[in-house]
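Predict both folds.
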Amino acid sequence: MSNTAPDAIKAVIKERSDLFERNFAAGDAAGLVRDYYVSDDLEPVVSAGDGPALVGHAAITALFEGFTGAFEKARQVPRFIRADGDLAYEISNSYLTPKGGGEEVEYRYVATWRRCDDTWRVDSDFFAPGPLV
């Protein structure tokens, strides 16, 4: 796997991350999952780091309903993106702004991206509170 992804793949991941942020700010957990993760038949997997892995759109949507209920916005900040063929992975930070004010909450995440028929989407996602480094 290449040490860095081609600019075209980075651009698509940025576009998908921007869409994630817009859906998050709108409180649209179902749209966030639909637009960011692979289709349900490919069984997307998310681990929030403090419980069992969640598989499928319904479970992942329920998780993000909790996040969008507590936070008003998410800001994705990519650190490393690597790609080869139809797979890529991203190691990044996410910063969540609490509803009603307060300090941003920092998360670190690793997302495995898969090339799909229409665009790149996240296949597997692991995130946990705290800084990347």
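Second protein follows, with its predicted structure tokens after the sequence.
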Amino acid sequence: MDTEALVKSLRDMSNKIIEDHKSVSLIMLLGNNLYERTDAFDYIISAKWLNEYDQEEGMDIVLDYLFDNLEQSEREHISRITIIHTSDPIVQDITRNMFRIGGFSYNIDCQFGNLIIPYAIIFESRYEE
């Protein structure tokens, strides 16, 4: 897998989500293997506008973006989509401590509160009260 191409495609998709919905609190890829680097990721998103939907409706919206913007070979590297409410302490801690708009940031072996993240790529992180 070409990780760089995957990250670029996901960045472009994330830009479309932001353009269509005006803001997000957090978008990140989380490596889903705790002990070694992986080529399968959890796509995590948190946004106030997503808080308004139940989990199934929110998931349908995010899945539409994935299927409309990524090739099958790229989607194979997304093992899970997770929508987290913006008031969740994990979202609050990450967005309070890691500001990122545009581009992306590789984070290896970082800790946010009690959460240890061995490998993550953060696309957007904005603290919103």
